[in-house]
Amino acid sequence: MLLSFRQEVETVLAAALESLDLPTDDLGIEEPPEDVPAVLASSAAFRLASVVGAPPPEIAADVAAAIDASATDYVGDVSVQGPYVNFQPNRAYLADTLETAQADDYGALPSKDTSVVVEHTSANPTGPVHVGRARNPILGDAVARVMDYAGYDVDVHYYVNDAGRQMAVFTWAYETFDEADLDEPPERDRIEYDLVRYYRTGNEFLETADDDAVEAAEAEIQAIMQGLESGDEATFERVSEVVDQVLEGMTDCLSRLPAEFDEFVKETRFIRDGSTDRIAERLIDTDLAYEDEGAWHLDLSDRGFEKDLVFLRSDGTSLYTTRDLAHHEWKFEEYDRAVTVLGEDHKLQAAQLQAALDILGNDTGRLRDVIYSYVNLPEGKMSTRAGTGVDLDDLLDEAIERAREAVESRLDTRIRDDELTDADVDRIAHQVGIGAVRYDIVSKQPTKPITFDWDDALDFEGQSAPYVQYAHARSCGILAEAGSAVDGTAIDTGVLTHDAEEDLLRTLARFPWVVEESADELEPHSVATYTRDLADAFNGFYRQCPVLAEDVAEERRNARLALVVAARNAMANALDILGVAAPDSM
Fold first, then answer.
1. Which residues lie across from 372 on neighbouring strands?
2. What's the pLDDT tens digit per position in 145-180?
3. Fewest C-beta atoms under 10 Å: which of 292, 357, 404, 572?
4. Same domain assignment for residues 368 and 399
5. CA neighbor of 559 nearest in space, from 532, 571, 541
6. CA nearest neighbour of 535 among 498, 508, 565
7. What mean pLDDT comes out for the span 504-518?
8. For residue 79, is it within any domain?
9. Is 481 helix (H, G, I), strand (E, B) or coil?
10. What's the pTM?
């Protein structure tokens, strides 16, 4: 129902443009700039300027004059500010917003009856998850969450690279070296920290050993790769012994974010079931395939690529992309849509994969990629193989400790002694610390690189998770003090006439279409922006509109309590979309 305002705006705007004989293919409806006092605005006048041959402000004025808002249920004031046609909802819409937002699931949209698989993280199982890759699970988890809220039937997958050279090297090293050969004890008491030492030792051996020893090792590594390619069960079990253990530890780490998966899909699955071979055969049968020195290539020059796609090596083994083609065709069989979250270093590979899928006759409109830039710390880049850099576990540990210090420094001595136990402080530190990391990363546009900054991430007064979390805790505190349930259906919104009340109501009304648009565009950072706007609006309401003061009339008190319930629900669910905890107290 609360998407109706936007739908009504679309209807009356399209009718107005049609009455002026103007094209209606792009209505330009968007959330307006901060200095534009509206819930929705249309920037269509910019686009129409070249069509009409008039300045955008003049076109906007003509369009606004042609709009008939009286025929709608929810469209109230229509105004013009420069080139924008601005739309405000009427009181009926605000009343319905307040009623609907009393539900715990406010912001969750009806089912779209569309299945989606979101693949994210998919880091090679060679050791602990590092900070440089942390953006993938955080962004991917938020994408999956917002699509779930938007009504999609979402499954989350981790694609396990268990067939490449790295895993062959790891398996060889694990079987070759003993504990005595390893230089250092594991950094943590978890399996992937133990096993990564074998991987590092193996790589060091391959770089420093004499030629004969390296040649012998390479022969064993190649045999493992060939065994996987041929579907040899014994080889698969050898590699799985390493992969499964490392993956178990990596999963424990990711669960701290939290980032959880419905299925771990192994690359070798598509070798063993023959689908990779069938992909290679189908590619060879196209007019674009050619053989060069025994290797098979796919000519993609007509599609704008300078580099062709190699899909079979000269020794007959497949490449990662060949297996991923089989993987994606399986996705298309199982799901209506597929979303893949990838680092910027995979951008070319992803584009080539889409081109190859199209050549094979797939509807690539069902596949969308979310490309992100990496997260850096001031210390610099990180490398699993070299054993340098910062693990995600280290970042999360430090986040919790820094959050504990920040929380304790804010606590009044009386509150600390009388109301918050040590367990409460531990809980809040964990919620704030992990939330700060997630929020700081997901709030940025994916294509922009991030240098993580502790002061910004843990700023209780800034654009951060703690700022929003504190607003949510404040709303919970008001409701706890009120001590009674609020029935939103019996509330008279007519008494909510203060500017801060109306601003909060209008901000709450935006939440459903923020969810819709964020899911459509695969941009969870839009939800992060919204949470800051919502916390700002709630804090303004809190400062200016007493809820439980003795001189507040009962009718207004009840209406304001309902507004607090609505704000609490919206803040909790918006934070949930971002994977950030919503504390009841701080």
1. 343
2. 999 999 999 999 999 999 999 999 999 999 999 999
3. 292
4. no
5. 541
6. 508
7. 93
8. yes
9. helix
10. 0.91
